[in-house]
Amino acid sequence: MTAVAVIGAGPAGLMAAEVLAEAGCAVTVYDRMPSVGRKLLMAGRGGLNLTHSEPLDRFVARFGTASPRLGPLVEAFPPQALVAWAEGLGQPTFVGSSGRVFPKSLKASPLLRAWLARLQGLGAAFRPRHDWTGWEAGGRLRFATPAGEATASPDAVVLALGGASWPKLGSTGAWADILVSAGVPVSPLRPANGGFDVAWSELFRDRFEGQPLKGVALTFGRVRVRGEAMVTRHGLEGGAVYALSAALRDAIATDGQARLWIDLRPDTPAAQLQAKLAQAPANQSAANRLRKAAHLTPLETNLLREAHGKDLPSDPAALASAIKGAPLRLTGIRPLERAISTAGGVAFSAIDEQLMLTARPGVFVAGEMLDWEAPTGGYLLQASFATGVAAARGVLKRLEGLVLD
Ligand SMILES: Cc1cc2nc3c(=O)[nH]c(=O)nc-3n(C[C@H](O)[C@H](O)[C@H](O)COP(=O)(O)OP(=O)(O)OC[C@H]3O[C@@H](n4cnc5c(N)ncnc54)[C@H](O)[C@@H]3O)c2cc1C
Questions:
Q1: Is pTM beyond 0.85 here?
Q2: What is the pLDDT of residue 405?
């Protein structure tokens, strides 16, 4: 029986383990943590967004420059296959209003429980508390464990070690140094889908930290996104911000700052807002006018002051355009540890079509540790699962002798 080591028991590694075990391999799954799938469980806390229901070409385009490499892998294990797989584990799904797909339970724990039972039924062995530290000179895998060093020399290896966000859940990105020393090109790990710094006034920060701006539109450059943003102590985060985060991050890296425009009333044309504001008595303060005529909340009114300055215009046309476009200066990105996901990773130039490292024949790579990024919306998990399937199929093909070194 061929022995395969899967290192990293997140969605990508466990999916690779399933495909390999089903094909009859002796699979051992290693993870540095005492239990598996911690980030998957965390993802389930806010409602597990498994994938997205939009047409496949639009779905694949979400991976930006990585689309040409990831596209075929997602097409080989598309959202419908993931939905069928989840349903096979007793987790029926539904499509939310935004097109996002969730398990009906919304949680990851029932899915993970059923999945682990299936993997154990298929004979997969689990080795928790095994921290992969690289290769010995002879090529054996080396692990640090509470009982000391352990080694293994399987016929093939799948590395599915995740990115470097939320390191307390297990994925620290420490693998990057190991792979770079092994001659594998790795693009720097950077935060993706993370928050940004805004120099709020102390008053604003203390009063509005933790409050959401709902139903707003954010614009950066020529891209406009509808959704929610959350005011944080440091600045802004949330779905609409994440959707722009790659472009904002890159702009800040180049220019030291980025200007983000907020439209607080995206469904109301400026002329309509102006007409409503013009009906208010001329002696009414700007704050009262905004509240009574435009129904702005205290958070929204104060956000306008943060963006436009303390003295808001009294002219209805100017006030309406202030509501439609409040500029915020983003001065930095929150650290990688706090981001939802990681950009950068093992370069696609380092792997072949089967996801095998050219510098390390027999070693395959899957999941977030590959150099791709995508917005939130189910794309991260879909790509992790799909690359897990692809890496396992790559292993099988190699073991069958169909791929020559
Ligand atoms: C708060 C939060 C919410 C999220 N919500 C969603 C969502 O709703 N939808 C979505 O699509 N995505 C979501 N994501 C992202 C998604 O969870 C990840 O993209 C996905 O888990 C990546 O899968 P992976 O298998 O590549 O890596 P991981 O899930 O990170 O798994 C990697 C595993 O490798 C192990 N490991 C790392 N280094 C070593 C080592 N040296 N030796 C041994 N083991 C090691 C880790 O312990 C870990 O178990 C969310 C992320 C966060 C943080």
A1: yes
A2: 41
Q: What's the rounded Cα separation, in Å, for the pair 193 and 383?
A: 15
User: Alpha carbon of 126 to those of 151, 181, 365: distances in Å?
Assistant: 15, 28, 19
Question: Which residues does residue 102 pair with via DSSP β-bridges, in sequence order?
Answer: 94
Among 62, 340, 342, 370, which residue has the most ligand 1 atoms within 8 Å of its CB, making it the best to mutate? 340
Residue 173 CA, closest ligand 1 atom number: 38
* Torsion 49-54-56-59 (CA) sign: negative
Domains of the chain: 3-192+340-399 (3.50.50.60), 196-333 (no CATH)
DSSP 280: S
Q: Which two tokens stand for residue 402?
A: 């169909």
Distance CA 201, CA 304 (A): 12
Sheet of strand 100-103, all strands in order from the earlier edge strand to the far edge: 51-52, 100-103, 93-95
Ligand 1 centroid distance, CA of 11 (Å): 7
CA 125–ligand 1 middle distance (angstroms): 20
* Rounded average pLDDT over 221-229: 95
Q: What is the pLDDT of residues 55-108, one digit of tens each?
A: 999 999 999 999 999 999 999 999 999 999 999 999 999 999 789 999 999 999
How many Cα neighbours within 13 Å face the side chain of 43?
25
The band of 402, judged by pLDDT with boundaries at 50, 70 and 90, is very low
Which one of 169, 171, 179, 365 would you pick to mutate in the ligand 1 pocket, going by the greatest count of ligand atoms within 8 A of its CB? 171
| DSSP state for residue 27 in the 8-state scheme | E
**Facing residues of 220 across strands?**
223
